[in-house]
Amino acid sequence: MDVTNFSSQPHWRHCYRNICTDNFVERKHSFPSPFTTSFKTHSRTKKITMSSEVVFNLEYLTRLEESARTLESTPQQRSEMMFKAQREVDAYLEQLSLDHPTGWVIPPKETQGQDKLVQPGQYQVQSGPDRAQSGPDRVQSGPDQVQSGPDQVQSGPDQVQSGRGPHETEPLPIQENGVSIDEVLRDFSRIGNEMEREGHPGHMAYVPGNSTAPAAIGDFLAASFNPYSLNVASCRRAVKMQQMIVQWVGRLFGYPSACAGNLTSGGTVATMVAMTTARDHKVPRSKDYSRSVLYLSELTHDGVAKCLSTLGMREAVVRKVPVDDKYRMDVNILRKFIENDVQNNLLPFLVVATTGTTDVGSVDPVPAIRAVATQYNMWLHVDACYGGFFVLCNSAKHLFEGVETADSIAVDPHKGLYAPFGTGLVLVRNGTLLRNSNTRQHGNYMQDQLTNPEDWNPEDLTFEQSAHFRAPRVLLPLQLYGVATFRDALQEKLELAKYLYLRLKGQAHIQVVEPVLSTVLFRIPGVSDNTNRALLREITTDGRFFITTTTVKGVLYLRVIIFCYRTHRQDVDVFINKVKDAVVKMELPEVEFCHAG
């Protein structure tokens, strides 16, 4: 046999197998790579057959194994890494206090193309290896500006801008050779100085995300055990953990045991799974997509309409229904919209009610919307992403009347159950419809897997496959603390919202809207929007609080959401004093107080 030699490397001892003769041979040859194929030809009645000899380099394999075993950490290595990582976590969590001078957020705030920072706030402290500053409109971290996104984006209390600057601090690069755990953690920990600190008690903007220590441990365990959690055959216990969470949430809303659902990456994906089921059930033919109609309120979260494009229904019609004086969907107008669409040969297929609008915290009248949906054979979906887990609170249960009749529900454990970001949940009342829209047809490579048609695998209840094992981040905190702890934490936020409302209600120059859940809107009436934005800047100037504005029915309000589990009455008292001081500083004319709601 003639073996062609391409190598410039030293001679190694090689082993190879002659596939034709199945003889195992050991010889010395030089090759450029671990595998070399050679051929020998046999001439027999003018037929040419070829057999290959695969050359195997044992020494090369040994070197690969030695390198690969680096990934197999020892208990001592794991303990050292976890100890050092926990040290960084503790250093960050110490900053989640109203008394800590760095404030609720320290993103880099230098405007793109400018060399000069806008006047920072009163705090300027050392944080880590670089100086961190927080201020009213511009906050700097590190020696140079750090900006996110290719272009300028809005962030902060008053359209604070961040963009990609010429001296952006970059994360530690991906390199051919690794570095020490200390260097990795030192680089990662800088994120704490370049982010909105959503767990800060003064973070009262958007719908802040929070995470508990048991949830973080749950993620650690999920990543360490790393089961494929979407199929009973792969890990029945992981599937049962997820199903237990889904069924528990279903019972909270009054769903029957025949419901089905899944943990998702968030509320938008949960909504998309529900809308896919609605589409397949109500609009089975794609030729009807262009005349299908989706009905929302003007306060429905923007993620709902976004799902249409992903579902291939970009050409569907979207109707935004006005809200009434309580910021709830006006059912009379909804009915008129539907009647008009039916007369014009359109196909009403889906209406979305919200239990806890993001702007206001208002709750749509679900029973009345259910009646309309039933009359016109429409799917009713309830967006409970923000407000859903307030159903745990006895004082708020009446707000969820009728939700048990909805065809589907989306709710976010990364909001009301304080799980890490990336934790949504979808429920479909008739679980069979959800399964019909998502059942997986396994490839041939899985033909030997033992399956049971009676098993409801999570992979058959969502479009996701190979998803993260999300159950532990939800289940561990519930098991450790008990449901009562979460109920009390959520009830505290409802009470704090009422407390804030009542305190601001008696404040001169302030108009305040009575809260339904934990969101409070207020403003100075009779002045320009710019004056109210100036009030916002004054309140947030020292970085201790982060609130934003919103516009509802054409009126600009300052918006406060009390949702962080670290926010308590003493924090709200400080905020109230900040509002009072800001109003006094603005030297407004003396008027009697007024309030709305």
Automatic annotation (TrEMBL):
Q: Which cofactor does it need?
A: pyridoxal 5'-phosphate
Polar residues composition bias: which ranges? 142-162
Q: Where is this region: Disordered?
A: 102-179
Q: Name one GO molecular function term.
A: carboxy-lyase activity
Query: Is Protease among the key words of this record?
Result: no
Q: Which InterPro entries match?
A: Aromatic_deC, PyrdxlP-dep_de-COase, PyrdxlP-dep_Trfase, PyrdxlP-dep_Trfase_major, PyrdxlP-dep_Trfase_small
Q: Which GO terms describe its biological process?
A: carboxylic acid metabolic process; catecholamine biosynthetic process
Give the stretches traversing the membrane: none
Q: Gene3D superfamilies from the entry?
A: Aspartate Aminotransferase, domain 1 (3.90.1150.10), Type I PLP-dependent aspartate aminotransferase-like (Major domain) (3.40.640.10)
SUPFAM superfamilies to which the protein is assigned, alphabetical = PLP-dependent transferases
Q: Which residues carry this modification: N6-(pyridoxal phosphate)lysine?
A: 415
One GO location term (cellular component): cytoplasm
Record keywords, A-Z: Decarboxylase, Lyase, Pyridoxal phosphate
Determine the domain of life of the protein's source.
Eukaryota
The keyword Manganese appears for this protein: no
Q: Which family does it belong to?
A: Belongs to the group II decarboxylase family.
Classification via PANTHER family: GROUP II PYRIDOXAL-5-PHOSPHATE DECARBOXYLASE (PTHR11999), MIP05841P (PTHR11999:SF70)
What protein am I looking at?
A: HDC protein
Organism source for this protein?
Branchiostoma lanceolatum
